[in-house]
Amino acid sequence: MALASCEPTAPPDAGADGGPPRTWSSPPGPGGFPLGAVRGRLGRSQAPQPLVDLGLVAPGSGSLAPLHLPAGFAVPGDGPARAVLFGTEGDHPALDLVEVDSGRVVWRDRTGCAAPVVGATAEAIVCADASGTRAIGLDGRLRWRTSAAFAALTGDRVVVSERGAAVVLDAASGGERARIAPPGGVSPDSVVASCGDAGRELFAAGEDGRLVRIADARGGPAIRWAVPIGAIAAIDACDGATVVVTEAGAAGPAVVAIERATGKVTGRLDGILGVWPARDGSGRIEAASALGVASHPRDLAGPAVVLGGPPLGALVASRGDRRLVRATPSTAVLLDRRGVQAYLPLAAHGAVLGDAALIATSWTGSPGEIAHRRALPPRWRRALRLPAPHRGVAVDAELRDLPPVRQLDRAAAVELPGAGMSGVVAHAIDPADGAALYAIALDGAEQGAVARADLAARRWRWRRADGCGPGTPVAIAVARDAVVCGARGKRATVRATSRDGEPRWEWTADNVDDVTAAGDVVVVHDADRATVLDARDGRVGGHLASDDGGPVRAAPVAVGGTTLVISAERGRVVARLGLGLWPVWSIAVAGVVRALVASGDGVLVALEDGDAYRIDARTAAVIALPGLGLAWRAAGDVVTGATRGGLIPGPAPPPPPPTLTQLLRRPLQILRAEIDTPPPMSTPVKPPPPLGDSWQLTLYALDGGLRARNDYALAAPVAPARRGAPGSPLVVVYGADQREICVLDPRTGDPLRRVALPDDAAPGQLFATVVDGAPVAGALLASPLRVVLF
Fold first, then answer.
1. Strand (E) or helix (H) holding 663
2. Distance between CA 245 and CA 210 in Å, rounded?
3. Exposure string over 725-751, b if 16+ CB within 10 A, otherwise e
4. ω into 389 cis (within 30 of 0)
5. N or C: where does the chain have the smaller number of CB atoms within 10 Å of the terminal CB?
6. If we measure between CA atoms, which residue out of 454, 434, 451 comes closest to residue 776?
7. What is the pLDDT of residues 418-435, one digit of tens each?
8. pLDDT tens digit string along 140-175?
9. pTM of the model
10. Separation CA 58–CA 63 (nearest Å)
């Protein structure tokens, strides 16, 4: 039996051909950990195929830092697949040319483009910003530049706006092909496409919300037709006799086919989830809807050919006859002529396809996002089933009467003078002491202070001014013997403080997105990776990486004197010893894990198909929760599921006022009239319109049993507050301005009280706990830092 295992840190190694040592630009994700024996299964969908993270290799033997928040563009043309990556290196923009299948970074440009990439051709890469438009060749050398503003890129033609004219440039050389003065009502910077060898046929988004075709005529360029169109998401204007426009609307994308010569709309597809060129190379288009994928003629006038398959989404990338198409928020499907080639975990925004690998990129989100190269898996051999997206399923429930709203008693607040003058950003409740509340206060300096409040004694125990590292605090968490604060600055830090306010240790990294803790373990999240630290001294205990490029789904759970890190990885939910990451048990997942959070002495696992399960960390027992598509949340000794409930009835109309005759009649006359006159036919009162949808909350015990289900007349959005020890009430804040609070009984869901927050309440800083055996709720106020119970 092996007694120890250490994970390599991806040092330089020899190349595959025995050449010089390899230096990683973007290192592969941590791997090689055993998953352990399967102890059970959960889910009723299908798990995507696991991918191998291959990494990107720096050119030569030099080092090269990875680009952050990169956007990827495919280089068109024959030959090996190449990708252009534009992101940031430190504080400066930079651009890489990468061979997708080998993973080699060919070169990096820091000065030639130095602006966002707007597209790539077979010979050049075009960049543009407020200072103008420029292009570099695929050799990394600057080809041309102009101060004119970029308008459009179609094929090898670049359209720029210069002194009221639309100028068509050759993308490779920058030479002028045409200069067109658009007709009145059309601005050069509204051009969306340029067609023809010289590019003189222009398509523009008119100021009146119409798509305009401009072509040469006697006397100069003229508008040949104008068609009303919505917001243009994409346009395919230069192939054949039909212009195909993808329109972005409130009801979703639509595809419109327009006859090039006349401007006649020949067809339209509404309710489309995605559209792409046909895989058979016939010139047709394929459109995905809720019913599956169908092939249509380009003019959308002929009959469609149903190709079947699951409902898919937007096109992510293409190469040859293959189409990478969004399936769910964290998965994608790779299609080819034969059908489904692969079902992939992919949460990244974009990708560039190669023959044997792909490069996934995300240009928004965590500052720690980098590009990842992953090997394409073997062919999918089963019929693919995807969960249909739907809203949470509500069940008929009682609409509960709410208590009146009262103002928060700020006079009862416990103040910490001089702290929190610039705000309060986060807080945490001590799991071992419900009366201990830790808060991060901003005092106008470059870092946050950590303070501890004793809710039982109603006073602040201590304040450590440097409790967080330099920069912006992002999270606070409490381990068994330490309070840790994560901050993001030039260097990200995780700084630990003892429960008595004494400094403990500090750990630094490039970025920190979140920090969670339990027992003797701290988990630091950074984009799609997580680092496990020893809460006692800050030593690194291991690394985890997500399968799809999204945030790592992992949670530390204290079980007696042991701490487990439970994570979703490679189609499993795996429990590992917190330090060393040895597997304790493993649960196979038939589906995709959307969220995983600690729930008592176990974890709550929510899947993308709407199902949720709770796993007991001690026994690995899997408990299915009776609910579908709910907003699942683990709250200590209870699990909650929320969704939109039934209608809130309007107020009953007041009764009609009595007439003068009724008021003047004597009682005997009224009695005789009632005896002698038959009752009139009743006139139904028209019910008032409903006030909107209620908010439905279902409470579950940890064993999956139903505690209560109620509807509440609370205005959206409704957000839950942090909850502490078992028995703490449930607190939610609701409304557009998030200023009203409703406190609920955790056993029955009964509304206990409602409170209105003052204007100086710190946003989102609400909590519920148990103090001296009594359940309480509270809020943190800023300027200065105060805590008030209600």
1. helix 660-664
2. 12
3. bebbbbbbbbeeebbbbbbbebeebeb
4. no
5. N
6. 434
7. 999 999 999 999 999 999
8. 999 999 999 999 999 999 999 999 999 999 999 999
9. 0.90
10. 6
